[in-house]
Amino acid sequence: MNAYIFALLLLWGEIVVSQIPLPGSCPDIPPFKNLNLEKYPGNWYEVEKYFFALEASGTCISVNYTANHDGTLNTQIRFTESVSGNKIAFPGKTIFLDPDTAGSGKTGNMQLTLSIINPYYLQTEVQKTYIYKLIDTDYVNYAIKWSCLPLMGVHFESVWILARDVTYPPEVKKLVRDSLAKSKIDTSFLQPSTC
Description:
Layout (H helix, E strand, L loop, with lengths): L2 H13 L4 E4 L18 E8 L8 E10 L5 E9 L5 E10 L12 E9 L7 E13 L5 E9 L2 E10 L6 H13 L8 E2 L3
Antiparallel strand pairs: 1-9, 2-3, 2-9, 2-10, 3-4, 4-5, 5-6, 6-7, 7-8, 8-9
């Protein structure tokens, strides 16, 4: 991959953060309520997802959250680059977009800002910001993240299913599918992640 291709990928990611085009505007999917910042942090592995162009060259994608005293999360995205086998890590920070009102806890409306460094040209660093929703988690087995971007009469969705391990058992997959059905998220676009 050269710098030109890397720049094009970043531009494409800026235009269409989410990858599956669907007709109409973004559905109104509520975020997870009363997020427990003592239980949610830690390491999560991507188990399933909608195709996401910026992750196309990586396998064994994981995210590690560490809670900060100010209510934000230090975030590190890690993956293995498919061609070279190099392990890559992008540091970032997750903030919560809804205020914690009356002690009711955080909601899953989140914004992640990553420092993305081109692994082939280390001098190329770009700050990328992504807005998404955590729509469900049981803190132990799974977390479901969803993103949507409206654009000219269609919308582009992404879904990421995370687990505390690289796979999850059938009973957890059923919980995830039930949660996705409740939010009316199409599971036919889900692809298994590899690790």
